[in-house]
C-alpha cells in the first residue's frame, strides 16, 4: 500500500528543475567516446549498447554485473566529459527511451540505483536536457518526482553502507526539482544524521572499511554540500564535520600513484575522479595519523609506503563486499606498487574468488580463508580477535599483530610481525602459526603486474620502474606461480611469490605446535 500510494500522480506538469546543480565528479572522455561509438568500456570488457533505432533499447538484456552501472546512469559522467554534441544527443536519446519504456527489471527500482539515477539525471540536466524539447523536459521532471515519491516511501532502509547516503541524496535531488514537495527535504534531513552516524566510524573511516567505499561516501557528502550551495543555504549539521574527518582517511588509503589501496572490495579506482574530489573538498593535504576505529595502518619510510589491514572485518550489514584479508598488506615505492592484494571485479564468480584470503598478501591455513561467506554475501565465519601493537625502535617501524580467524576451522592462531627500516629499503616479516597440530601453511605475496619477476634459486628479483628489489626467506620453500590482478578494471596476468611451510617443520611447544617462516624484501642499489 505504501508504494502504491507513492506511484499516484499529483497533477504536476513537469519541467526544468527549480534548482540546477552540476555533478561534481569528472568522467572519462575516452570512455565517453566509446559510448558514442556504441560500446561501453566496463570491468567485463566492451559491452555493446542497445540499438537506438527503436523505442525499446532498455528491453535488451545486459550482463547482471553491469546493470547497476547502466541503470544508475553513472555513464552520463563520461559523456559529459567528452562534451560534444554527439555525446549530448546520445545521453538525451537513452534517457528518452528510458522515459518511454523503462526496463521491467526489478533492479531498476532498487533504492540505491534509483537514488543514484535521480542524482545523475539532476546533476547532468543542463548537459543532457537543457536544450532539449519541452515535452522531454516535462517527462523527465515527472519521472524524477515520481521516483522521489517512491524513495520517500522506502526510507528508512536497513544498513547498506555508503549506498544509504546515495538513496537519501536521490530524495534531495527530487526536492531540488520541485521544492514545493517539502516532504522530500523533510525526509532527507530527518534521516541523514542517523545515516551518517552508521556510515562513518568515529575516526572518519567508513563502516565497510573499504577505500573504494570511503571514496563513494565522500562523493555523496561533497555532492550534498554542493547541492545545498546551489540552493543558497547551509547544509545540515554533520555534513562538513564528517567530510573533515573522512577526507584525511581517504588520502591515507592512497598509494603514491594517486590510486586506492585494494582492501575489502576496492580497486585502484579512477585517479582523475580522486584528484577532482580532493581538489574540491581539501583545503590542505592532510593524512589521518591514526585510525583507531578503521584499524588501517599507514607507515611511510623514505620512498616506501606500507599499508596494513589490522582490523576485524566490517560488522554485519556492512560486510557484503568485505574480503578475508585481515592482516594483509600492500607495499609500494614512490609511485610504483610492488606487493598488492588482487583487487575486485564485477563478475560474480571472480568477485567471490577475489574475496578469499588467497587473493591477499597473507597466510592460508589448510588452503582456506580466514573468513567464510554466506550465500547472501555476508560473512558467516570471521576473526573475532585482532591484536595490533605499533612502536619505533632504532629508527625502525615495528608492527606486531595477530588474528584468530583460523581458530574455529583449524584451531590455529596467526601472528605476523612486520618491520620497515628508516630508509624504507628493507621490509621484513615474521609469520607464526600456533596450533594444536601441524598444518599445511602457505604465505602468498602478490606482485603488481607492472613489476617484472625473476626467480633465482631461493631468491626472487623484482624489477620495478626505477628500482630493483630482492625477496628472500628462511624456514619454508619458495616458489613463483601465475597470478591474476584485478585492480585496474580488467583482469591482468601477474605473478605471485608463495612460501610453503611443510608440516614437518613445525616444532612442539607445550600443548601445541608452532610453525614459523621469515622473509625479507630488500632494495638493491642501482
From TrEMBL:
Pfam families, per database record: Hepar_II_III_C (PF07940)
InterPro entries assigned to the protein according to its UniProt record, in alphabetical order: Chondroitin_lyas, Hepar_II_III_C
Gene Ontology CC terms, in alphabetical order: cell envelope
Residue ranges of every copy of the Heparinase II/III-like C-terminal domain listed in the record: 288-504
Cellular localization per UniProt: Cell envelope
Major location category of this protein: other
GO molecular function ontology, one term from the record: lyase activity
Domain of life: Bacteria
Protein name: Heparinase
Native source species: Formicincola oecophyllae
